[in-house]
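Propose amino acids for all 712 sites.
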């Protein structure tokens, strides 16, 4: 329901620019020979010549209307030229019209805050530009006024028969007793006229405009005088405009709310609302809607121009009227695949051109149940987190549809895709992507973080560092599709992102689509698989056997999974088969000789080698972690549960790595230690004899007594 917003100022200058029969103009620009001729753009289907989606003003003069079909239009106007809209994915392809609309937006946005409302309409906040013009060159001081400005229609301006309308408009613009608000509107008329002329010059498109103090009035005015004209709405003329405006013509009153106003309150025009108090309207329609109705009856609307040049969402849909209704899951899946493929292309284009990512996928449908005429309005919409890649979007959309269909029918339907049914039919289907936001500034590929080159592989077309200038964060996983997301960057290395990962451990039912949304990413190399268990926040990978690094060849590493996290994985029983260490991706980085990095590698190396003193190493689960300095407490938690496999010859190096000089240790302190610790200490002094510490007593180690105390 609409919500009232307080008018911030009655001195705003808002314009609504609406393209004239835009689809026809786009086709006429492609085929200049159609200019000036009756023309219409038709849908791709051949039923009765196709549905008209745009009609030129020349064709309208012959009585052709958008509600007609191609054959009927030819009966009314035999000379009409019917141009078919481009086709892609089995439906109308509107990309050429969207791109043409973007050309217009790029011009209009130069003069003020711009909000793209649709393919062919734009809102502009010209307040700042109008105020600047008013200071520099007031309208009353202008001698030469452009022809296009004089052609403006000013509501409330009485023009008697035989009087030149342009002269009356000139007088209105230059009058000295005009209010500050009217002077701003006059400046707005100059600005909009110049913008419209610039659009015509650069794109060959004509457009109409409304200029008022708020978006609601500007929208109403833009359609009053078409084509290629503009209308100004002074504050003094607002009452006359709304008094005779039919209820259904007002934005947001074309549906149930408008019908209720007509039937329950007997309001035929917006002006009829003036007879009801705000309390009465709130009593009938709630506080917010009642307040909004009271405001619009007086021309009050505080909605701001949002400053948006790009669409808030992307969508793809198709209708299946009458006998074309979809009655099998197989047919629904076919069209969902087509719609999702188009949606994926648009999302990828938005990502490449505008650096934006969408987060939510929504499925909408209209369907009927046999014997229930009102069921068309009850098919539920379903949403889930959006995953990039055509295959993923198709899988998620099908799952959303099946979930919605089960809810719609009230029982669990068969999952056999080809089965016919006599109970339901789908008459409309659409998918949309929303919550589109810019990629956060400073977000880059993980390769840039390591600052090196990734070795080429047969599985990669190019190095990751060169392939991705900016990294796209993975979409958040929800309860419906969290069985193992792959980072968006990795998806991008494979055509269309439609690669497949085979999960070795299937925790969900094989045939339940809700359990398999995230399982396929084609052709991902086994050694670079980055699967992650569902619902887990700790992302770890398996490693190949430990390879000791040369002491003089340290390699810079970033943070790796903690030992504690690795142990947690083991105890949870998460077996990540087919995984590999992230080091496989970065094992050919250029070597760095910085002392800090050398210290990190040396210390981490010694964490492993210290296992020969009764500190076992973890060969299975932390070969990637043993090359970085770790807190002693974490090291002890991990190594106490494993069996050491390090040899003794490097004893001197190990002693030095821990930065403890054994000769300086007070032996009287050793005698005060528990017996098992004393035994372990003696084994340290005599490395040729390996201590045999019972497993039950491995809860403490000499390292706990001589490692730095963090609490200090």
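Proposal:
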């Amino acid at each position: 329901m609409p919500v009232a917003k307080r008018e911030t100022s009655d001195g705003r200058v808002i314009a609504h620019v609406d393209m004239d029969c835009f689809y026809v103009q786009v086709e006429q620009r492609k085929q200049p020979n159609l200019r000036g001729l009756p023309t219409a753009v038709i849908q791709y289907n051949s039923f009765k010549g196709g549905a008209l989606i745009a009609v030129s003003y020349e064709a309208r003069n012959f009585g052709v209307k958008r509600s007609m079909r191609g054959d009927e239009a030819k009966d009314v106007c035999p000379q009409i030229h019917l141009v078919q809209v481009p086709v892609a994915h089995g439906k109308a392809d509107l990309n050429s019209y969207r791109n043409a609309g973007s050309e217009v937006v790029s011009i209009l946005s130069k003069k003020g805050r711009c909000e793209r409302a649709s393919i062919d309409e734009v809102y502009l906040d010209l307040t700042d530009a109008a105020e600047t013009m008013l200071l520099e060159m007031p309208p009353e001081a202008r001698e030469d006024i452009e022809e296009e400005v004089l052609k403006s229609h000013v509501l409330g301006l009485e023009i008697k028969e035989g009087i030149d309308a342009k002269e009356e408009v000139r007088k209105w613009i230059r009058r000295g007793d005009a209010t500050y608000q009217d002077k701003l509107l006059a400046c707005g008329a100059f600005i909009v006229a110049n913008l419209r002329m610039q659009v015509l010059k650069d794109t060959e498109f004509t457009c109409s405009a409304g200029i008022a103090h708020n978006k609601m009035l500007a929208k109403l005015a833009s359609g009053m005088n078409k084509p290629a004209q503009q209308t100004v709405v002074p504050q003094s003329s607002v009452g006359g405009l709304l008094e005779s405006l039919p209820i259904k013509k007002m934005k947001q009153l074309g549906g149930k709310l408008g019908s209720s106003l007509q039937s329950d309150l007997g309001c035929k025009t917006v002006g009829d609302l003036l007879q009801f108090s705000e309390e009465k309207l709130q009593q009938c329609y709630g506080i917010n809607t009642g307040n909004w109705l009271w405001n619009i009856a007086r021309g009050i609307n505080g909605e701001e121009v949002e400053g948006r040049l790009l669409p808030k969402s992307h969508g793809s849909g198709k209708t299946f009227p009458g006998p074309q209704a979809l009655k099998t899951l197989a047919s629904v899946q076919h069209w969902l695949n087509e719609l999702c493929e188009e949606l994926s292309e648009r999302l990828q284009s938005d990502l490449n051109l505008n650096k934006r990512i969408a987060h939510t996928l929504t499925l909408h449908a209209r369907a009927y149940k046999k014997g229930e005429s009102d069921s068309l309005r009850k098919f539920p919409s379903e949403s889930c987190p959006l995953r990039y890649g055509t295959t993923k979007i198709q899988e998620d959309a099908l799952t959303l549809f099946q979930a919605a269909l089960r809810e719609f029918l009230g029982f669990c339907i068969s999952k056999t895709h080809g089965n016919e049914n006599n109970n339901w039919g789908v008459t409309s289907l659409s998918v949309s992507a929303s919550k589109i936001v810019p990629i956060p500034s400073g977000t880059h590929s993980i390769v840039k973080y390591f600052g090196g080159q990734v070795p080429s592989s047969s599985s990669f077309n190019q190095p990751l560092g060169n392939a991705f200038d900016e990294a796209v964060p993975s979409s958040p996983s929800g309860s419906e599709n969290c069985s193992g997301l792959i980072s968006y960057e990795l998806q991008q290395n494979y055509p269309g992102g439609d690669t497949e990962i085979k999960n070795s451990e299937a925790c969900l039912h094989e045939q339940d689509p809700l359990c398999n949304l995230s399982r396929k990413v084609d052709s991902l190399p086994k050694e670079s698989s980055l699967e992650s268990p569902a619902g887990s926040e700790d992302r770890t990978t398996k490693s190949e056997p430990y390879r000791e690094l040369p002491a003089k060849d340290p390699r810079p590493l970033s943070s790796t999974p903690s030992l504690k996290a690795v142990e947690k994985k083991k105890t949870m029983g998460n077996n990540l088969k087919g995984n590999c260490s992230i080091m496989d991706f970065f094992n050919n980085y250029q070597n760095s000789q910085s002392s800090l990095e050398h210290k990190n590698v040396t210390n981490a190396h010694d964490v492993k080698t210290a296992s020969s003193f009764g500190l076992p190493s973890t060969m299975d689960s932390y070969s990637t972690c043993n090359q970085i300095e770790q807190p002693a407490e974490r090291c002890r938690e991990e190594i106490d549960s494993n069996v050491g496999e390090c040899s003794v010859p490097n004893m001197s190096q190990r002693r030095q790595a821990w930065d403890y000089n054994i000769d300086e240790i007070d032996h009287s302190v050793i005698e005060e230690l528990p017996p098992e610790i004393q035994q372990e200490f003696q084994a340290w002094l005599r490395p040729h004899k390996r201590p045999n510490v019972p497993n039950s007593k491995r809860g403490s180690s000499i390292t706990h007594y001589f490692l730095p105390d963090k609490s200090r």
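The mean pLDDT is 74. Residues 399 and 513 are 5 Å apart (CA to CA).
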